[in-house]
Amino acid sequence: MRSINRIAWMWDEALSALEQAERRHRQFCGLSGARSAQPLWEPPADVFESEAEIVVSVALPGVRPESVTVHIAANGLVISAERSLPAELATLRVRRLEIPYGRFERQLELAGGRYVVVERRMAEGCLMLRLSKE
User: Fold this and answer.
1) Is residue 126 one of the residues assigned to a domain?
2) Which residues on neighbouring strands pair with residue 106, listed in sequence order?
3) Residue 110 sits in which domain range?
4) What gap in Å lies between CA 119 and CA 12, rounded to an integer?
5) Run of H or E residues at 37
6) What is the DSSP-derived secondary structure letter of residue 62?
7) How many angstroms separate the CA atoms of 45 and 106, rounded?
8) pLDDT in tens, 44-70
9) Structural domain contains residue 8
10) Would residue 113 be called left, alpha or beta, if left means φ above 0 and alpha means ψ between -120 and 50 degrees?
């Protein structure tokens, strides 16, 4: 039984690493200087679940809370907005650019069911969402 748990753990770790690599590839390889209607990057997100609710935390430093759109779709949760380069930085020469800017969209798959956003707030640069299960 112990070796089965180890195999399951290794499989979970491998899948998690592949998902993270794919997300980072989309996040950084999709960047462009041109304005686009298509999302250019994806912010990292954490999802926690209990019997009654789902709690989502999305890292959005520098994003105005009122610009964020949250939508519950048939297949999950969609969070989108735009992270703009501050005007005072636009005329400076870039030496290093690690924080992505531009339009973003993050889609998070939810288990089948009906959900309602019961709390939405920004805390320490993260969008915090509480979804109740109905």
Assistant:
1) yes
2) 79
3) 31-133
4) 30
5) none
6) T
7) 8
8) 999 999 999 999 999 999 899 999 999
9) no
10) left
